[in-house]
Structures are given as structure tokens and as C-alpha cells.
Request: fold
Amino acid sequence: MQTIKIQTSQNIELEYMLAGVGDRLVAYIIDLLIYIAYGIGITIVSDALGGFGGNNWIMLILALPILFYQLLCEVFLNGQSLGKKAKQIRVISLDGNQPNFGQYLIRWIFRIVDDMMGSGVVAIVTISLSQKAQRVGDMLAGTTVVRTQAQTAFRETLYADTDETYIPSYPQVNRLSDSDISLLREVVNRYRKDPSGTAPILQKAAEKIRTLLSVREAKEPASFLETVIKDYNHVTGKAVD
Reply:
């Protein structure tokens, strides 16, 4: 299985399994079925209302969700369309952070080249030949698509919502960003699945966060990071993704 190693802005190296042509093709087909189902629904409603009285602007408005479907899904669903979510793959930035709106926009614009020209042949060829499994839009946006893993019971416990009586151990966690917390979640989950192979990464991440938060206590790295994540969720009011 093809993998990619990404050096994050926190100087932490993470390895991901790249989503291959098969995964991305199935995700695309699922999204295509959603397009078709939406189109059928609009047609049924149109027929029931007598074709909207010939008002083309109404049809144009109703077509907007399909036009912007991929862009809106990736922006608001953490790099996933419904098809990608079903196949457990998502878009990530090559710098290790969550892609920004500009990167998602570039991917969306160049989807015309990748998916529509040549009936998707351009996308299939570039993904197959690229070392990072990128289509043209990915190359220009600095992104790629990787596999994700199902959330475990541990993850659900770690990121459960806190109640109003919860007292954060590190209230200064608001110095961190969403991308920092996303990275910490990734590091901790990888450590829980492979302690021996990821312990150095965990230790490095804990040292970095201690420095950012001005924390001097020598708490066990995994426990420390779990607490930081929980505190961040409470202080910022973030829901579990």
C-alpha cells in the first residue's frame, strides 16, 4: 500500500496511507449517485408544479447545490464529500494541516479538468502516475487524499463532551489552534494503536505543546496530550468531529 510521510509545521512526521484510484473512483460514483438522486427529485417536484412556470432562474438556483456540492462538503465535513466519508478517505494538506478554503477552492475549480475532461481519464492517469496520488487539482492546491480509520471506542471516550462543572487543567489551551488539536488527536490515536513505533513522535509532540503552553510538570506524554485535547474542547466549546 502506497504511503506518504508529511512533516508538519510542528516538526512532527506523520505517515498516511494514500487513497488509491479504486477508493477515489468508488467515492466519486457514490457522489454521482447523489447527484442523480437529487436531479430526479428536482424533476419530480418540477413536474408536480408544472415545470416552475418556465422560470429558468428557479432551475438555476436548484442546480447550485450540485454545482457547489464537492466544495461545500470538503469545507464543512473536514475534507470529505459523502462519497469520501463512505469510503473513509479525506483530503489533507501536504503541510500536515487541514486544508484552507483556498486549497479546497483550487481543487474544486480544477475538477473540471480532472473529472470532466476525458470522462475522468485525466484524473485517473495523474493519480496513478503521481508519487503522492494527486490529480491536477491536488498538485496545484498542495493536497492529496488519504485513508482514514474508523473511530474507536477509545477515541469516543477521549473526545466526549465535557459538562459545565469540568475544570480545565490547562486553561491556556486557547493558545492552540484547531489544526494543532487535530494533529494531537492523530498522534495520540496512532500511539494507542502502536505504542512502540510511535512513542518518539508522541514524546516530541508533548514537548512541543508543553513549550507552547508554558507547562513544566512532567506528566506522562499520552495522558498530558489527552488532557490538553479535552481542555481545548471544553474551553473553545468544540464538538467532537
